[in-house]
Amino acid sequence: MSHPRKIASSLARRLKAAGHTAYFAGGCVRDRLLGKEPKDYDIATSATPAQVIRLFPGSNEVGAHFGVVIAKDRGVHVEIATFRTDGSYKDGRRPEGVTFSTPEEDAQRRDFTINGLFEDPDSGEVIDFTGGQADLQAKVLRAIGNPADRFAEDSLRLMRAVRFATTLDFEIEAGTWAAMCEHAMGLQRISAERIRDEFSRIIVLPDRRRGLELLIDSGLIQYFLPEVLPLIGCEQPPQWHPEGDVYIHTLIMLEMLGPEASLELCLAVLLHDIAKPPTRTYDAAEDRIRFNGHDALGAAMAEEILRRLRYPNHVIENVAFMVSRHMQFMNVQNMRISKLKRFMSAPTFTQELELHRVDCGSSNGFTGNLHYLLAKREEFAAEPLIPKPLVTGHDLISLGVPPGPRFTEILEAVQTEQLEGRLTEREGALEWVRKII
């Protein structure tokens, strides 16, 4: 694979040779100034889409209406956009039309000053019409021009502001923050899929705790995941949760997860106690707070939330499954070997182990069950947790057992004996079946 910067530079040179202005634009300029290697490069140019396509035959007119063409060269895709001014945004998502314009005007239509920078691909000179370089140095995220106008144009910028502030560890400038809080309801105009994609990028960031706090403090979360709000102030029994309410507990867990934590694990941690507020009761006899059934109700709520945000089925199923089982970890040392092996054989078990680690680490600090499971995983590592069955359905049919509930019970009973180590070979297992039927 060729280096993306070299390829983008060669495309820009061809635009310049044809008499057009061509600059690197946006994120790639920002990242280079921050000392990061940009993953991809965008070019802003005075050439119209038709002129770009003539120069680069085979390009994709992904948004020629908006002046955007994708050029492909040696496996690298470069977005080439004509300098433009956007028309009115009636739907809070995209402009009604665009007018091709100048670099200065093009910079003014972008979202944040740090994304409004251009760079000459040959000299490396930065062209800054918005004060983005000063904000980069000051670690400030500031909307270009009037923040309220920028957020009214495309309300997804509200989520992008949280993502950039969290990714870069920047402070959000006061006027920009005030406009975010005031225009939070603009998210109602944005599709669930676009909100989901931004939220997913925020919740997997190493500083995901700050991302969640910004979403809550700005009021944005109310418009796509309001179920999180009742966690704030939902008190827990201090003997098990000295750290505080369910919200604080969840924040600490998100903070404790490693930087490489998967999306599914981050969502499971966020939602594992989502049903504590609706299940909270006070047991006067024992003088303690209880959350009976919060794991089962939590799994149903997690499924409903993730379906509403249009997550893929496999993500929904795995997250709901992890939420449904997170309370079972307290019983693992009392499980029969057969039950424990079945419990540990779940495809999500490694992630559940991490959820359990941060659940205890953020509250009572109890590590006994975690260490027990880690030791058992090592002990069982020599062979599959669920071995090949010694007896099959065909065997039962040949022994005269008709398919039905009893049929399933016998197969499960044989597997239990096998997992417990009491049946180890096929002949003995068939003899055992003959006796019980």
CATH topology of the largest domain: Hypothetical protein af1432
Shape field: elongated
Q: Indicate the proportion of strand residues.
A: 5-15%
As a percent range, the share of helical residues equals 40-55%
Radius of gyration: 28 Å
Structural domain tally: 4
How would you characterize the overall build of this protein?
Helix content is 48%, strand content 11%. The chain has 437 residues and is α+β, with helices and mostly antiparallel strands. The chain folds into 4 domains: 1-133, Beta Polymerase, domain 2; 139-220, Hydrophobic Seed Protein, CATH 1.10.110.30; 226-379, Hypothetical protein af1432, CATH 1.10.3210; 393-436, no CATH class. The strands form 4 sheets. It has a 7-stranded mixed β-sheet. Helix 12 crosses helix 15.
How would you summarize the topology of this molecule?
Layout: H1 4-17, E1 22-25, H2 27-33, E2 42-45, H3 49-55, E3 60-63, E4 68-73, E5 76-82, E6 84-86, E7 98-100, H4 103-108, E8 117-119, E9 126-128, H5 132-138, E10 140-141, H6 147-153, H7 157-168, E11 171-172, H8 174-182, H9 192-203, H10 208-217, H11 246-256, H12 263-271, H13 276-279, E12 281-283, E13 288-290, H14 294-308, H15 313-325, H16 337-344, H17 349-361, H18 368-379, H19 393-398, H20 405-419, H21 426-436
Parallel strand pairs: 2-5, 10-11
Antiparallel strand pairs: 1-2, 1-8, 3-4, 4-5, 6-7, 8-9, 12-13
